[in-house]
Amino acid sequence: MVFSSHSHSPKTQYSLNKILNLIQTHISLHPYFYLFVSFLSIQALVILFARNPLLCFSNRSTAGKHHHDAVSVVPTDDCPYGRVYSYDLPPMFNIDLLLSNCTDLNLWNWQCGIVTNHGYGGGATELRSILPENLYRSWYRTNQFTLEVIFHYRILNHKCRTMEPESATAFYIPFYAGLAVGKHLWMNDTSKRDWHCKMMLKWVKKQEYWKKSNGSDHFMSIGRITWDFRRLTDPGKIWGSTFLNMKSMQNVTRFIIEKAPGDAHDVSVPYPTGFHPKSKDNLIDWQNFVRRFNRSSLFTFIGATRNWVNNDFRGLLLNYCYNESDSCRVVDCSVSQCSIDSSVTLKALLGSEFCLQPRGDSFTRKSIFDCMVAGSIPVFFWKRTAYDQYEWFLPIEPQSYSIFIDHEEVRNGTSIKEVLMRYKKEEIRKMREKVIETIPRIIYAKTNGGGVGDFKDAFDIAFEGVMEKIKEDKEWV
Ligand SMILES: *[C@@H]1O[C@H](CO)[C@@H](O)[C@H](O)[C@H]1NC(C)=O
Ligand SMILES: *[C@@H]1O[C@H](CO)[C@@H](O)[C@H](O)[C@H]1NC(C)=O
Ligand SMILES: *[C@@H]1O[C@H](CO)[C@@H](O)[C@H](O)[C@H]1NC(C)=O
Ligand SMILES: *[C@@H]1O[C@H](CO)[C@@H](O)[C@H](O)[C@H]1NC(C)=O
Ligand SMILES: *[C@@H]1O[C@H](CO)[C@@H](O)[C@H](O)[C@H]1NC(C)=O
Ligand SMILES: *[C@@H]1O[C@H](CO)[C@@H](O)[C@H](O)[C@H]1NC(C)=O
Ligand SMILES: *[C@@H]1O[C@H](CO)[C@@H](O)[C@H](O)[C@H]1NC(C)=O
Ligand SMILES: *[C@@H]1O[C@H](CO)[C@@H](O)[C@H](O)[C@H]1NC(C)=O
What we know:
477 residues, alpha/beta, Rossmann fold, binds 2-acetamido-2-deoxy-beta-D-glucopyranose
């Protein structure tokens, strides 16, 4: 399930996959951790954040409009877009949602990722078998639904955090909506999926600074896809919570792993992968490693079929890949324990020029980011898998870093292998270079605080983007 996201289709509700996800959301965190981090001094962090030029992005116009390239921007103030105030929510809305039972050794409970290590997960020691020492230490067993925990940690420790709401430009609501709703997604009682959301809004609407803006200078992060929070707009009105249908949420910006393309307040951010470098050197070592890796296969497909889906495209790709075993590496996640042993999947991605990325149960899929972090070039079959998501993070030109083959053409008999073989070595090298230079933008660095300071990761880009937007909105008014 690590490689699929999850559906809002009621048809698929009762699958093993869903039950696994459900179990994996029952996890924990030591409550005194937040006490500890709140004592970290802001001054100490400022020292960490001495601004060095951002590596890899020499041409601003190739990136999205929210990319603040340190090569051309020399900030005069450490917080050019102002400061953020993080609400001190009652623990029932965040840390109490992290239950305390998990073990790395148990298949059903493997993903301690959300609880451990401020949301980053424990070290991925299994990668020792395939990576040199200096590299495997940048890898963690990170849960794909941990975004809200990582963002919370990063904001609490951010140099631009203020403890005085009156000096804040923007307000962060550290509500773990994905964990609150995820627990109840597969149970019949829809009121339970809405309860925490309603209570949180009731709480926040009493706050002085909410009343001043009705939430338009507030933001949050949500660790599950947007369709898990839009029951009223679900065709069957069955799936998920109504959190994002609630009127009070209308003007709150939320970072989310898959957005609703029509909703300007949804901002899609990369799914967390297991790669979390601690420094720019760690990052560069990794970029060099994936650049030089001997990729002996043309392409790879990692995934499991969905037997209950009619005419399942992933099943088709799996069979195709088995049949083309000279050029395709298969990792069948219904056979391999993809979620437990990331060495199986990482080895396949490192060893392949391209990786096939069909849609997941929803349009997006965590595996897109696993693929790119390993320097493999993604092959998409639906435009909506990546091209209208992640605008702040992925290169603007789809063909600069990816291949598109329409799924209907594949069903009609187009050979994926033949399409991929048409690309020349030099074209492939260029695309891979684009993928490699995108790596810092799609990962969450492992830091003591707000940023690693010497490059901008996905969190930094998201944070600066929302701060700039809110600041501009306020100045315009
Ligand atoms: C930057 O990229 C744009 C669009 O890809 C291109 O037109 C422009 O020439 C590039 N500029 C530099 C300085 O490379
Ligand atoms: C934690 O796991 C143990 C062993 O599986 C179990 O006995 C215990 O009840 C669990 N505790 C909670 C709070 O779930
Ligand atoms: C679950 O919901 C469905 C549809 O609303 C209903 O028919 C069914 O009886 C419910 N099941 C239980 C166990 O409550
Ligand atoms: C907030 O919403 C209320 C009710 O809709 C409205 O009366 C009030 O003027 C709004 N305040 C702002 C600052 O938009
Ligand atoms: C959201 O913002 C728009 C435009 O500023 C405003 O018209 C609307 O009333 C706001 N919605 C809520 C619920 O405050
Ligand atoms: C790359 O791997 C292939 C297949 O394993 C092998 O034949 C080839 O010699 C390797 N090339 C290099 C440069 O290591
Ligand atoms: C398997 O590959 C062979 C040779 O490329 C091809 O003739 C055959 O139709 C393929 N079978 C399937 C099921 O794709
Ligand atoms: C696939 O084949 C069908 C039937 O021959 C045709 O109508 C359709 O346009 C084809 N689709 C693509 C994308 O080639």
